[in-house]
C-alpha cells in the first residue's frame, strides 16, 4: 500500500503551533508502523527547507517525494497568469498534484487542500476561524461604504475562499478525524457532516522534545514565583484577562512575575493582539512581565514545571494539549470551561470564566499547603498519562490502512 502524507505543515507557520506538533508526533509513529507492515510512503512538500529533517526516518523506509513548488508567499517569480491558474486549480481542479498514485492520503491541514481522486483521511483540529469569524476576517462593508471597490472585492474573495476551501475539504475527505468529541460535534452541527465519515482521535502529550529548526533558547528567566502562559496571541486566547488578573494580584501585594511564551511575545511592542499589547504596555508592573518569545521544548517544559500555575484563558479549543502538558509537569492549570477543555482536563483542571476568577483561583493556590498541592498535581499527572501519542497515531494509522485497503 502507498500512503501519502502532506508534510507542508512542517514547512510553514504551523510547525510552531498545534498542527505542526500533531504532524510531527503522529507522522513519526505512522511511518514506523507502515515500515513494519511493508507499506511505501509518498511525501508532499514545498520546495523550501526539507520537512523530513523534523522526523525520524527509518533506514528501511521506502518513499518518494512530490514537490509542490515554492510556498505561495515565497513565489516571487510567479506571474499574474500563474497565480490565477493556481487559484482556479485550488477552487475547481485537484488542489494537490499526483495524489492518485497513493492508495490513501493523510492531510493534517484542510487549508492545504483535500484531493478528489484519492481516499483521504483529514485531521480536523477545530472550527476556530468559522466560529470566531469577526476576529479572523474583515468585513467588506467598511471598504464598500468608503467606495474602495478593489479592497471590497479583495475582502469578499478572501472570505469566500476560506468558506469554499473548508466546505470542499470536508466534502472531499473520505474520513474526517476530529481531535476531540467537541470538534466532531461542531463539524456535524455546522456543516451537516454525515456521522459515518466523522470520527475521533483524541490527541496525546509527550515530554520528549521534538526536533526543531530553531536553536534559540530564552535568556530572561524569571527570578520570583511566577504564572505562565504559552501559546499564540489570537483573540480567543484572552491573555488580556490573565494580565488583568496579574495586575490586581500585584496591587494586592503578591510579589509574582508573569511569563508569556510564544512567537507572539518577543516584546510588548510586537504583540499582534492590540488588546493584549495595550494591557501589557500600560501595566504598572511591566518590569515583572517577562516576554520570552519562542522557547524550545526543553526550555518550555522547564518554565512550566517551575510555575505556580499555568493559566490558559481560552474561549475555545479544538483539543488543548497545553492542559495535559502542564499536568504531566505537575503544575496546576487554570483554564476557562468551554468547548473541549473539560473533555481534556477532566476533574483535574481548575475551571473559571473571567479575570476575577483567575485571580481568585491563584489566591487559593498561594495559600494551598504543600501536601494538598502535591496530591492535586499527582492525580492530574495520572490523568494526563492516559493521553499518549502512541494511541493517537494508532487510531490514525488503523484508519489509513482501513480506508486505503478498501479502495
* Separate helix tally: 15
The rounded distance between the terminal residues' Cα atoms is 10 Å
Strand order of the largest sheet: 3-2-1-4-5-6-7
Instruction: Give helix % range.
Output: 40-55%
What is the string of SSEs from the N terminus onward? EHEEHEEHHHHEHEEHEHEHEHEHEHHH
Specify Rg, calculated over alpha carbons: 22 Å
Strand content: 5-15%
Counted beta strands: 13
Q: Strand pairing plus helix content: what structural class?
A: alpha/beta
Global outline: globular
Q: pLDDT below 50 for ≥5 consecutive residues: which ranges?
A: none
In round numbers, the mean pLDDT is 92
The main sheet comes to:
7 strands, parallel
Summarize the structure.
By secondary structure, the chain is α/β, with parallel strands linked by helices.
Please tell me about this protein's structure.
41% of the residues lie in helices and 14% in strands. The protein has 15 helices and 13 strands. By secondary structure, the chain is α/β, with parallel strands linked by helices. It has helices spanning 18-36, 80-92, 128-131, 133-136, 141-145, 149-172, 181-191, 239-251, 274-281, 297-305, 321-328, 341-345, 355-367, 370-384, 389-405; strands at 2-6, 40-45, 63-67, 104-107, 120-124, 175-178, 198-200, 226-230, 257-261, 289-293, 309-312, 333-336, 350-352. α7 (181-191) links the parallel β6 and β7. The longest helix has 24 residues, at 149-172. α11 (321-328) packs across α14 (370-384). The protein is globular and about 65 Å long. The strands form two sheets. It has a seven-stranded parallel beta sheet with strand order 3-2-1-4-5-6-7, with helices on both faces. A six-stranded parallel beta sheet has the order 10-9-8-11-12-13, with helices on both faces.
Amino acid at each position: 500500500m502507498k500512503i501519502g502524507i502532506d508534510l507542508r505543515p512542517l514547512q510553514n507557520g504551523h510547525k510552531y503551533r498545534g498542527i505542526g506538533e500533531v504532524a510531527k508526533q503522529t507522522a513519526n509513529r505512522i511511518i514506523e508502523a507502515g515500515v513494519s507492515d511493508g507499506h511505501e510512503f509518498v511525501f508532499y512538500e514545498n520546495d523550501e527547507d526539507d520537512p523530513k529533517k523534523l522526523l525520524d526516518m527509518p533506514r528501511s523506509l521506502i518513499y518518494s517525494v512530490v514537490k509542490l513548488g515554492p510556498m505561495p508567499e515565497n513565489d516571487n517569480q510567479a506571474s499574474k497568469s500563474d497565480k490565477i491558474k493556481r487559484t482556479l486549480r485550488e477552487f475547481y481542479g485537484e488542489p494537490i498534484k499526483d495524489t492518485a498514485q497513493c492508495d490513501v492520503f493523510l492531510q493534517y491541514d484542510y487549508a492545504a487542500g483535500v484531493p478528489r481522486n484519492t481516499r483521504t483521511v483529514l485531521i480536523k483540529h477545530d472550527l476556530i476561524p468559522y466560529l470566531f469569524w469577526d476576529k479572523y476576517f474583515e468585513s467588506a462593508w467598511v471598504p464598500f461604504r468608503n467606495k474602495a471597490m478593489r479592497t471590497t472585492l479583495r475582502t469578499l474573495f478572501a472570505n469566500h475562499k476560506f468558506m469554499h476551501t473548508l466546505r470542499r475539504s470536508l466534502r472531499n475527505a473520505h474520513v474526517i478525524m476530529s481531535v476531540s468529541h467537541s470538534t466532531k460535534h461542531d463539524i456535524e452541527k455546522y456543516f451537516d457532516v454525515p456521522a459515518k465519515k466523522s470520527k475521533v482521535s483524541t490527541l496525546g502529550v509527550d515530554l520528549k522534545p521534538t526536533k526543531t529548526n530553531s536553536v534559540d533558547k530564552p535568556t530572561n528567566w524569571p527570578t520570583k514565583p511566577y504564572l505562565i502562559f504559552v501559546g499564540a496571541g489570537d483573540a480567543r486566547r484572552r491573555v488580556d484577562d490573565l494580565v488583568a488578573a496579574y495586575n490586581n494580584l500585584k496591587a494586592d501585594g503578591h510579589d509574582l512575575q508573569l511569563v508569556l511564551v510564544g512567537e507572539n511575545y518577543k516584546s510588548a511592542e510586537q504583540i499582534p493582539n492590540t488588546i493584549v499589547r495595550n494591557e501589557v504596555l500600560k501595566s504598572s508592573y511591566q518590569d515583572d512581565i517577562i516576554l520570552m518569545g519562542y522557547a524550545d521544548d526543553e526550555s518550555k517544559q522547564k518554565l512550566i514545571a517551575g510555575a505556580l500555575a499555568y493559566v490558559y484563558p481560552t474561549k475555545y479549543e479544538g483539543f488543548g494539549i497545553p492542559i495535559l502538558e502542564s499536568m504531566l509537569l505537575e503544575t496546576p492549570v487554570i483554564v476557562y470551561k468551554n468547548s473541549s477543555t473539560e473533555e481534556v482536563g477532566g476533574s483535574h483542571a481548575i475551571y473559571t470564566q473571567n479575570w476575577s476568577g483567575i485571580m481568585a483561583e491563584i489566591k487559593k493556590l498561594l495559600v494551598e499547603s504543600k501536601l494538598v498541592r502535591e496530591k492535586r498535581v499527582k492525580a492530574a499527572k495520572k490523568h494526563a498519562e492516559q493521553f499518549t501519542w502512541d494511541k493517537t497515531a494508532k487510531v490514525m494509522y488503523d484508519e489509513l490502512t482501513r480506508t486505503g485497503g478498501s479502495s
